[in-house]
Specification:
Elements: H1 5-13, H2 66-86, H3 89-95, H4 105-128
């Protein structure tokens, strides 16, 4: 984009009310926005998007079938989240209840959380890698 430094500095040196555009507005009590004059050097040269040939461009990955996949992963992760929340010591302390303990119950929360992360997060992790 071409710069016109002499025009920029001249206007910057003058107070706003003394700029050339205000001469024609003298005596008016209200202020209108000034339209910028058209400058052909600043117009984009390739505005014809039809002639650019975007037909061969690939726009991302095919996402067909993702809705059903995400829906099923959501429901599985939701069901697995219930025991994770119920066996969470923080939630038990907040709500004032305790869950029954059994051999391995201390491992229930971290194991289910890893399963939720792995099963529910794999599509997001795969899409993050180009």
């Amino acid at each position: 984009m071409a710069q016109h430094p002499q025009q920029r500095t001249e206007k910057a040196e003058q107070p706003h009310e003394q700029q050339q555009q205000h001469d024609r507005d003298a005596g008016h009590e209200h202020h209108h926005a000034h339209e910028a004059p058209a400058h052909p050097a600043h117009q984009p040269k390739n505005q014809d998007h039809e002639a650019m040939g975007h037909g061969a461009m690939k726009h991302g990955v095919d996402h067909s079938g993702h809705e059903q996949m995400f829906r099923s992963r959501f429901w599985v992760c939701l069901v697995l989240s219930i025991p994770v929340l119920l066996y969470s010591p923080t939630l038990q302390a907040w709500l004032g209840f305790t869950m029954p303990t059994f051999p391995g119950s201390t491992w229930l929360t971290p194991v289910f959380a890893v399963i939720i992360f792995a099963y529910g997060g794999v599509p997001f992790l795969q899409m993050a890698v180009p």
